[in-house]
């Protein structure tokens, strides 16, 4: 099952899909949904805003993924409980095309869970907030080949297979990449 949330989603490994996941019924939750409101103060009691910045180098804004993920955990939300993979929305589209799960670098750097200096998920954040790290797939850089479009998609669209290349998925990164040189 694919469970969408704001600009990320979870994949639940509940049936066979293009590779290992099935996406029968998406659950949409808007990031401004009052029932899912994020309380940044409760997170800051465990790990300060300053420490988050020191660990990740990211701008700390409560609309970013870490705050929503932590809120889902506190609420014991079904998305959090049943999700096996965390994908940003751009990565979800790549998953639909290829069946491969990755998180693209420029988008994940704004998640406030990725250590930009060391190029890795920041273990101390996961440990302090008791968040599962194993739901996060590998990071892929813009310009890298993800895979080819799956045979199932090619057959359905009646097209030849072709490679799917990871874009700069963060909106600002894509804008910069699109500037004529």
Automatic annotation (TrEMBL):
PANTHER family, A to Z: SUGAR KINASE, XYLULOSE KINASE
Keywords: Kinase, Transferase
InterPro entries per UniProt: ATPase_NBD, FGGY_Carb_Kinase, FGGY_N
Record-given protein name: Carbohydrate kinase FGGY N-terminal domain-containing protein
Organism annotation: marine sediment metagenome
Gene Ontology biological-process annotations: carbohydrate metabolic process
Pfam families assigned to the protein according to its UniProt record, in alphabetical order: FGGY_N (PF00370)
Single GO MF annotation: kinase activity
Domain Carbohydrate kinase FGGY N-terminal intervals: 29-178
